[in-house]
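Async update (no meeting this week)

Hi team, since we skipped the sync, here's where things stand on the single-chain job. The sequence we agreed to prioritize is pasted below, unchanged from the tracker. I ran it this morning and attached the output directly underneath so nobody has to dig for it. Comments welcome in thread, and please keep replies under the output.
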Amino acid sequence: MNNKGLDAKHYKGLVLDLLALGAQPRQKINDLLLSKLPASIDGSLRRKEYIKNLLQEMARDQQIENVGGATRAAKWQLKK
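Output:
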């Protein structure tokens, strides 16, 4: 289980639960997911890239939106 991890649907659910509390900065999302990602995604840069791709996919699916700026100023919230 540590090597395979959970499917993206599970991680998206965790993000949606967090964002239900209100808009959150990317660091909070990183803190939530980094320790839960599988061992097969090695290195902090690859893990952060995975989270970035997950957020982008959720934004394309109209689930969430960025209401802040780019990079460190990014704040994500549920799409209204």
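Quick observations from my side:
Helices lie at 8-19, 26-34, 44-60.
The first strand starts at residue 24 and ends at 25.
Reply here if anything looks off.
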